[in-house]
Amino acid sequence: MKVKLVINMKKALDENRPIFHQIKEWIEEDILDEELKEGERIPSTNELAKFYRINPATAGKGVQALVDEKLIYKQRGIGMFVAEGAKKLLMERRKQEFFDDFVKPLVKEAHRIGMEPEELTELLSKGVKENE
Q: DSSP state, 87?
């Protein structure tokens, strides 16, 4: 069975952030972008460690975090696979993070400067149109 090493091709380690966290995020991004689809095998911790020249335990920590979040699952002796519903779960989580990180501060600032909800809605619509 050939394994996609998509994450290896396009990402470089950022020395200012925990490596295990970057490994986790890259696999999540590949699931969201459907580079890794439900049921597909992800690179093993040894493959990740070899490519990035990191300790296998570090790669394993990132992969284990995905297992803990039920985004991937282990099949003993075979490998790790993307769980059914992983993309949907990630999308729901990212939408909540978007709301918390962007929408709440936006609404708070709009309120602070006396912007009416209709004005805010109008500006958001304008922003969407400008981005189309």
A: H
